[in-house]
Amino acid sequence: ERLIRTITQHIHQSLEVEQILQTTVTEVRQFLQTDRVLIYRFNPDLSGTMVVEAVLPPWVETLGLTVEDTCFLTKPGLAHRYRRGHTHHIDNVAEANIDPCYRALLTRFQVQANLVVPINCGSHLWGLLCAHHCRGPRHWQPKERALLSQLADQMAIALQQSHLLAQTATLAQQEKLFNDIISAISDSLELTDVMQRASHQMLKTLQASRSLVVLCQPNDATSEYTALAAAADITFPRGQVIPIRDNPHVQWVLSQDQPVAIADVTQEPTLAGVQPQLRKLCIGAMLDVAIRYRGIVKGMLCAHQCHASRNWTAAEAQLMKRVADHLAIAIHQAELYTQARSELAERKRLEAQLRYDASHDRLTGLPNRTLFLERLAQALDQLHHHCTNHRSLAVSTLEGAPDHCCDCQFALLFLDLDRFKVINDSLGHAMGDQLLQVVAQRLQTCLRPTDVAARLGGDEFVVLLSNLSDAAVAVSMAQRIHAILESPVLLEGHEVFIHASIGIALSATTYTDPNQVLRDADIAMYKAKGSNREYAIFDAPMHTLVMQQMELENDLCRALERCELRLYYQPIINLATGAAQGFEALVRWQHPRRGLVPPLDFIPIAENTGLIATLDLWTLNEACRQLNDWHQKLPHSHNLTVSVNLSGKQFVRRDLIQQIDAALSRNGLRGHHLKVEITESVLIQNAQMAIDLLKQLRQRHIQICMDDFGTGYSSLSYLHRFPIDVLKIDKSFITNLHRVGPSTGDYEIVKAIISLATNLNLTVVAEGIETVEQAVYLQTHQCQGGQGYYFSRPLSVEEATAFIAQLPLPSPAAKTETACRESTGPTA
Questions:
Q1: Residues near 449 by Cβ (< 8 Å), separated by ≥ 6?
Q2: Environment class of 97 (CB within 10 Å of its CB; exposed 0-12, middle 13-18, buried 19+)
Q3: What is the predicted pLDDT for the residue at 378?
Q4: How would you list the strands of the sheet with 36-42, edge to edge?
Q5: Which of 95, 505, 567, 672 could form a disulfide with 701 if both were Cys (CB 3.0 to 4.6 A apart)?
Q6: C-alpha count within 13 angstroms, C-beta hemisphere, residue 20
Q7: What's the rounded Cα separation, in Å, for the pair 314 and 61?
Q8: What letter would DSSP give residue 54?
Q9: Which pLDDT belongs to residue 549?
Q10: Angle at 546 (CA atoms; ends 542, 547), nearest 5 degrees
């Protein structure tokens, strides 16, 4: 009696149902001295949710769990028994004759004895009041079962009171809800928000199943629900297509000024063609009204009653009409606002696009040089502001003390794709662009969120690594980028391999301008490329070397003007007779401060700067002039020839033949006095053009020498295509011929080249002969000519003049041979 009085008092004092239910289960658990008491509320699908609970440890808590008791689905009679007020108890779950599904449910919650009482609100089974004994079996007394039944009735009263109170509150708020709809329309310029709020408010006001807004015009073929609100147990017809033009009911609604009320959709003739859709949406009754602004249809406002018919009242129809009229005003205002906003958005979009285009590379979408330098400047500013008292990233790493570095340190990676020009020229620029896009995509997959990648132009990319504490991170990133770029790329059936040279510049407070960091990373990249390494880290000696190279480049530009270039002449010897056949003209640079600069130091600079063509032309004219001078002064020199090297840039000049003709004519020389030396790479760049040009040279009795033979691309496959006279074996094959007698390796290669040339009626000249053993081996295997330090180093003009003066006078047979060659042209 005390317990019932306590619960009854709570029901009268409190309107909070959940508080009443929680107090009930707490009091009941204490009174019964059991382990768990809970209230299980039924969901529409007959699953249940534990809404309140009182439980003693260590037993499992169930509050908030949703449980599907399959017994309710397979045995409808169970729910029916509970609706009739029957209770259920089990004294010993282990021995009870119950369904396996129920036993599994009780075992899940460690229940060994339970008592279940239904909570019925009228004919509606609201839920169950359950008492669980978990520590062992328990015999439930009849008084205990009766007590729980009384308490369930008290809770049903509390639930019914709460429901009636909610209904009263709903009626009282209907006019207020309508005012809220008008307020929502007046307060918001977002049409979707207005319509959605109106749908929700209409749903509450009409107590309907659905409230919907459809924006459409009578001539539209179809439309979709623009805004929708539905009761909790009603599905949302998202994406449902509504016929408009061919729908008699919709056309009827849109043609009327007043709402159209349908109490039972199955009895309405205008809905006969859409009955399957109505059944799918569970619509039993409809109240629709057209939304019009100054006579122009903007859409429809609809209310649905699902699973049942409904007689709509005149007040409800009038409410729909008033809301539709206000929605029409809101739609018109939103159209004006949307138009203005669209114009503003388009302007902002264009401005943003212009800003984006100005700061990003159009091909790859990566930041361009401008944006990257801004990011680099920010990183540099942060370094100066926060890390002035810290050692540089490079120093801390080298000294093994990365803990002295702050998180504002950074590193710059400068990437250049090796042989990209070859890919671009062979496959076309469109393929080259695709390759650059692939590189950009792969770069981005390597980056951390704080890193930035950019394309500077051409095949140059940069990466800014931020928040570094160790230079090893930059090295690791360079290795990772190098590895991911090496995977082959398939471009329209062509498999392309990428290799990148990477330069790394580490942050330091000595940098004051972002371009300085970029410069040093670029220098390190060229260091990596020149040494055939994956990456190189910039250091001070690199900058010194670059400055020296730049100074050398500037000096080279003036070398021709200042007459600082010299030609040296290395004799080419007939190995069979030991007589001199001619000279190879080798350019040297007599620098005013550096002295004699070797070719390896300035020829690459001349090629990179484009001066090589001018240098080649000077060499051609100077060599011809000097040979003519010897012919005039030294009778010993009439049979001598001069060999001149032609670079790739000079060889492809359209006026090359005219330049050679002019040089020979100006110096009174015949074509057989001149030999031109070219490499295989020069020939294969444009094979057909090379063939035409070589034929013109042979017509002038100018012999063509293939220089550095054996080190090119496909030497043997090109010999039969090009009109070549002389093969010059590269000195790399001659160097290892250091002892007498046959051997493998270079011995066999040299022998094979001589044999091949003999079969093709070509003359063979070996370069780089430095020992008697090499000379003897070549002579033994019928190599016709040779040059190298064994015979003579390159000679100055004075030394070469003295060398010629010591030569014996040409024999009458030699003079006759020369005359025949001049009159009949070159042999095969």
A1: none
A2: exposed
A3: 92
A4: 66-67, 48-55, 36-42, 124-133, 113-121, 88-90
A5: 672
A6: 25
A7: 52
A8: E
A9: 67
A10: 120
Q: How many CB atoms are located within 10 Å of the residue 174 CB? A: 16
Q: How far is CA 767 from the centre of its chain?
A: 51
Q: CA-CA-CA-CA torsion for 737, 743, 747, 752, nearest 10 degrees?
A: 160
Lowest mean pLDDT among 508-522, 656-670, 707-721: 707-721
C-alpha span between 131 and 28 (Å, rounded): 8
How many Cα atoms are found within 13 Å in the side-chain-facing hemisphere of 576?
7
CA dihedral 283, 285, 289, 290 (to 10 degrees): 40
| Count of residues in the chain | 828
3-state helix, strand and coil shares in percent for the chain, rounded to the nearest 5:
50, 20, 30
Q: Cα–Cα distance between 146 and 21 in angstroms, integer?
A: 18
Q: List phi, psi (to 5°) of 40.
A: -110, 115
Q: What is the pLDDT of residues 235-290, one digit of tens each?
A: 777 778 889 999 999 999 999 999 999 999 999 999 998 898 899 889 999 999 99
Which of 676, 724, 705 minimizes the C-alpha distance to 767? 705
Please name the residue that has the structure tokens 């972002």. 514
Terminal CA-CA length for the chain:
132
For the ranges 49-58, 61-70, 130-139, 713-722, the lowest mean pLDDT is seen at 713-722
Q: Report the alpha-carbon distance of residue 812 to residue 291 in Å, rounded.
A: 118
Written in H, E and C, the secondary structure of 631-658 is HHHCHHHCCCEEEEECCHHHHCCCCHHH
Q: What is the pLDDT of residues 588-631, one digit of tens each?
A: 888 888 888 888 878 877 777 777 888 889 999 999 999 999 99
Residue 357: closest CA among 347, 370, 344: 370
Say how far apart CA 134 and CA 136 lie, in whole Å: 6
SS3 284: strand
Token output for 525: 């990249």
H or E element in which residue 537 lies? strand 535-537
Q: How many CA atoms lie within 13 A of 10 on its CB side?
A: 22
| Residues sharing a CB contact under 8 Å with residue 8, sequence separation 6 or more, in sequence order | 154
Identify the CA nearest to 240 among candidates 266, 269, 210, 205: 210
Q: Is the pLDDT of residue 795 over 90?
A: yes
- Give the tens place of pLDDT for each residue, 777-786: 999 999 999 9
Burial (CB count <10 Å: 0-12, 13-18, 19+), residue 143: exposed
Q: Which two tokens stand for residue 450?
A: 């704080």
How much is the pTM?
0.46
> How far is Cα 820 from Cα 107, in angstroms, rounded to an integer?
117
Between CA 747 and CA 715 the distance in angstroms is: 18
Is there a contact between 762 and 724 (Cβ–Cβ < 8 Å)?
yes
DSSP state of 429: H
The dihedral through the CA atoms of 168, 170, 176, 178 has a sign that is: negative
Antiparallel, parallel or unpaired: β 48-55 and 500-506: unpaired
| Element housing 707 (H / E) | strand 703-709
- Contact between 690 and 732 (Cβ < 8 Å): no
Paired sense of beta strands 36-42 and 48-55, if any = antiparallel
DSSP string, 687-699: HHHHHHHHHHHHH
- For 126-174, give the DSSP string: EEEEEEEE-SS-----HHHHHHHHHHHHHHHHHHHHHHHHHHHHHHHHH
What is the rounded CA–CA span in Å between residue 743 and residue 741?
7
Burial 58-71 (b: 16+ CB within 10 A, else e): ebeebeeeeeebeb
